[in-house]
Amino acid sequence: MSSEFNIRDNLWDSLYLHYLSHSDDLFIITDSFNLGLSIPTNQVPTRYSNNCQDINLVLDLMFLCFRLYELNNHTIHLEWRLISDYACLTVTIPIVEKHIQTKKHMIVKDSEQEHTFIKKLIKAIRNIDIDNISNVNCLNNTVHNFASLMENI
After folding, report:
1. Which of 65, 98, 108, 130 has the fewest CB atoms lying closer than 10 Å?
2. What is the DSSP letter of 38?
3. Using a CB cutoff of 8 Å and minimum separation of 24, what contacts does 83-88 make?
4. How do residues 104-136 score in pLDDT, each as one tens digit?
């Protein structure tokens, strides 16, 4: 979760010497979504004033999923802001290449194997006990049992 939260606080802006109670509210809300304040890889302001009399601020924050080492910080791209007064924030999400073993079953159309499979399938569907499905758990059990039957056909 990332946005301009428009809250100044010394928790994320070392040049600001005050602590605000609004920060507590923000942390309570983000904590309820299992998110924690991300620490930028480069500690620079996120909002740059066009007026040289004003100071630059850290107003944009990013909250990432708690306890995920791969997603524990973000980068502030000062060089991408061009004419905007805000810098862009990015996070790199690693994608690991993984081989997932899959099985593929094939039945030749109009074969005896297809006819036998369809007969067994129809019998299995007819034998599903739907009188017991009174809640989500019962439905899940029924679907799981049906899936197990299908694996064995």
Report:
1. 98
2. P
3. 85/47, 85/48, 85/49, 85/50, 86/4, 86/46, 86/47, 86/48, 86/60, 87/44, 87/45, 87/46, 87/47, 87/48, 87/60
4. 778 889 999 999 989 988 888 888 888 878 888
State the sign of the Cα–Cα–Cα–Cα dihedral 106, 109, 111, 113. positive
Q: What is the dihedral of CA 105, 109, 111, 112, to 10 degrees?
A: 60
Which residue is listed with tokens 């107003």? 59
Strand-by-strand arrangement of the 60-65 sheet: 2-4, 60-65, 35-37
- Domain ranges for the chain, please list them: 2-90, 112-152
Residue-level length of the chain? 153
Query: Tokens 């060089």, residue?
Result: 79
